[in-house]
Write a structure and sequence with these properties.
CATH topology: Farnesyl Diphosphate Synthase
Structural class: mainly alpha
Distance between the termini: 10 Å
Number of strands: 2
Order of helices and strands: HHHHHHEEHHHHHHHHHHHH
Radius of gyration: 20 Å
CATH superfamily: Farnesyl Diphosphate Synthase
Number of helices: 18
Number of domains: 1
Shape: globular
Strand order of the largest sheet: 1-2
Largest sheet: 2 strands, antiparallel
Helix content: over 70%
Length: about 325
């Protein structure tokens, strides 16, 4: 086992408990997704299903369902909001892959390489529209407000990231602002919308929103670490894609800071100018691991996972709370 894999290996957590508990609800969510993907324009369901059927864990809609049940919800509104959350997430993935020029998504060829960038962007727009139809059908104005805001914040995060692409002088604060907007906001909104659908009090809705936000940060930080220490099978994309695309994530930022001017020429060439050789990712990974940047990123992910679990303290112990605690552990326990 090389150094990167040794660092990534963490005590195992699992989302399986929550997935089993929510199996009936998630089957209902899947039925809604299949139903609302239909369109007389055949490329729309074909392209969307290519991504949705690629084996994602459905963590965000799972979070909506679990938050609704933890908050005492018994109705079907949470299922429609969960399907809406999955559509929003899928739409952002389609748009992201076009912007980033990604070649893989969830282990499959990216949709834009099969159907073209224009179709991918427009199908993403279709999914956003479907998501808002589902929200309106629930009649819960507060949930519509939460998810509409999340859609806006995600777009802002995407533009901010694009404007700071390949910037090796990016601050840690700006990096955290980007991942909070791009990733944590939808996790937060998914949990909060689930709570609101159950009629939860403002305090309980806020606690579940904070849980989701910290879970999203833990998940993204671990994902960024896995890009340097994981395997393609774990990531659903090629290991090293962030580096090759010139994305400046926390492991890279910490390595640049800790190594000082010693490797500044390498970072400037390989990241800022993206003049890379085949051997550059291996060298970058060795530098990131050697600087302790991978370990530090995973430690921060672990801190956010613990903060997420702390937000559940006000809820009665039971299987839904246990499942959400296990989900936080899972976010930082994925293997290389």
């Amino acid at each position: 086992m090389d150094a990167a894999k040794a660092v990534i290996a963490r005590p195992p957590g699992s989302a399986d408990r929550l997935m089993r508990l929510a199996a009936r609800d998630m089957a209902g969510v899947d039925e809604l997704i299949v139903e609302r993907l239909q369109s007389p324009v055949s490329v729309i369901p074909a392209l969307a299903e290519h991504l949705i059927d690629a084996g994602g864990k459905r963590l965000r809609p799972l979070l909506t369902v679990a938050a609704a049940r933890l908050a005492g919800g018994q109705g079907e509104a949470g299922l429609k909001l969960a399907a809406a959350v999955e559509f929003i997430h899928t739409a952002t993935l389609l748009h992201d892959d076009v912007v980033d020029g990604s070649r893989l998504r969830r282990g499959k060829v990216a949709a834009h390489l099969i159907w073209g960038a224009p179709s991918s962007v427009l199908v993403g727009d279709f999914l956003f529209a479907r998501a808002f139809e589902l929200m309106v059908e629930t009649g819960i104005l507060r949930a519509l407000e939460i998810l509409a805001r999340a859609s806006r914040v995600i777009a802002e995060g995407e533009v901010l990231q694009l404007s700071r692409a390949h910037d090796i002088d990016l601050s840690q604060a700006t990096y955290l602002e980007i991942i909070t907007a791009k990733t944590a906001e939808l996790f937060a909104a998914a949990a909060e919308a689930g709570a609101v659908s159950a009629g939860a009090s403002p305090a309980r809705s806020a606690a579940l929103r904070a849980y989701g936000r910290n879970l999203g940060l833990a998940f993204q930080l671990a994902d960024d670490a896995l890009d340097y220490g994981g395997a393609t099978e774990t990531l659903g994309k090629n290991a090293g894609d962030d580096f090759r695309e010139g994305k400046v994530t926390l492991p890279l930022l910490l390595a640049i800071t800790r190594l000082g001017t010693r490797e500044s020429g390498f970072w400037e060439r390989a990241v800022a100018r993206r003049e890379q050789t085949d051997a550059d990712f291996r060298r970058a990974r060795e530098l990131v691991v050697g600087a302790g940047a991978l370990e530090a990123t995973l430690d921060l992910a672990g801190d956010h996972a613990e903060a997420a679990k702390a937000e559940l303290a006000g809820f009665a112990p039971g299987p839904w709370r246990d499942g959400l605690e296990a989900l936080a552990d899972f976010a930082v326990s994925r293997r290389a």
